[in-house]
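Q: I have 624 residues here and want to know how they pack in 3D. Can you give me a structure?
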Amino acid sequence: MKKELYFGFAIMALILLGLVIAMPVPSEMTDGHLGLLMLSLVVVAIMLGFPTAFTLMGMGVIFTYFAYDGNIQKTLDLMVQSTYKVMTNDVLISVPLFVFMGYLVERANLIEKLFKALHLSMARLPGALGVATLVTCAIFATATGIVGAVVTLMGLLAMPSMLKAGYDTKMAAGAITAGGCLGILIPPSVLLIVYGATAGVSVVQLYAGAFFPGLMLTGLYIAYIIIRAKINPKCAPPLSEEDRKVALSPVLDSLKRTYGSSRAVSALVNGMKGRREGNLTTAQVANQFFIAMLPAIFAAFILGLVYSSLTAPKEAAFDTSGLVTFGSEYQGSSNSKYDFGFDEPAGAETTEAAPAVEEPAAEEPAAAAEAESTPAPTNFWISLLVVVGVLLYYYARLSFERLEVFKMLLTSFFPLAILILAVLGSIVFGLATPSEAAAVGAFGGLLLAAGYRQLNFPVLRESVFLTSKTTAMVCWLFVGSSIFSAAFALLGGQELVEQWVLSLGLTPIQFLLLSQVIIFLLGWPLEWTEIIVIFMPIFIPLLPYFDIDPLFFGLLVALNLQTAFLSPPVAMAAFYLKGVSPPGVTLNQIFLGMIPFMFIQIFAMFILYVFPQIGMWLPEVLYR
């Protein structure tokens, strides 16, 4: 038997021992205990290597048959109804579209250019290669959401570069595996879609809530790399001068030789109006100048939008002083043709309506009829001065080499950023449903692949095949989970678990700790898909008893479930990386490299619990 199975069985034995100690032994076996037996058998069968989806379906059908006392018709009816309920879930439409977008972006060959541009732009930071690896993984994971693809590609690109630069093998492996797993948390994440469909939580709110925790976790990873490289430079040596060297394009190289200046802006201005070498045309120099001015143009565009929004004329309040209540001008006139037959109460005095007094119309200038514009607040002008100062500093230090790195980022990072903003922005700001935004993302992936001349029939066929394979796995998991959950509830297992948990008298904090510890331990032998579809239906009904928001619970679970890819023995990220690593890299080194990042994840969960507004602020502002 493999060591991994021994380890997995040891973990399960510890869990069962804890349950035996905490849960009293029943005087007689009930259907609820039969449900717990089914749950245990499912976990053991999955650890032995049986397919998760079909194990869930098989166990669900068998134990449903027992619950119905051998009634096959009722058993088959429950199976069909559970399957139909899953297949009519509109949320699942976004799964194949997001997966298809990820596979297309992966095949656009952007990641190599992105990694090179980022590590050159961050060359002066301690641990520059490690930081560039994490940022590249975060960006690429956001665009694809496919952990295996990100870890594999970064293992091929970053691992040899970091080992060649003298990086510690464990640090390099940990940075790649931890960065690749960020796609589990950062939207558009398939995990959040699966959790939303399982828990009945809005996927839109989950995406908005997971945005800042994902950035926080990425920032903690980067901070760890920088601090460790600063304390011990041997584990992450700085880049050599040869590695920092940037090859200039012919136009920039010619301008640099002509003017002999390290300042790119002054050389470009002189190149448009002065002498030039190398048969450069004014259009070529102007094109480079336009590229250099893009940050200023973008800043001016954003500031212009903010200014126009802040100073937009306020709509004048509609004057209702001249309006009267319906029928009020006819009160007291019982003989009027407008008398609707309502008699006045006894003793009421009838008064004659006072004649209307015409007030002289005030002479107002035509301009006063229009609403006046609102002056911009002081904070806007302070922000404007800060932005202008940053731009002046940037252009004063802009060398030809930095301009070349910016051009590399322009062709690798910004296309991905536009795609990500288009997808997430349309979801978060309510412009589109997740399914509609996923369709936009899939179309954007097609455009990216076509723009980088990677779109052909073999690429399209492979992307469609892998998308179908992944989607089928997710859908069958949902079918199996639905049948299993129905059988578990039918046997009374859910009710038994609820009674046991409530009998412990736990506070909300204790319940959160208990549930997250169980999920953390389950993440060692099981994958996140199995944990979501099997155990979330058990935890979710307990949340109202402890007044816990399912959205906040989902964010904690999303942070926690990254351990399913970073914890042995079923740390899939480690096996992805081992398959593409140089021969000298061992699996034990990869496991040891992942451990510090696991503790960072636990620390991130603690921060999110102490400051829940990190995840809840954006959904509350946008949707509540």
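Q: Anything worth noting?
A: DSSP finds 29 helices and no strands in the chain. The first helix runs from residue 3 to 22.
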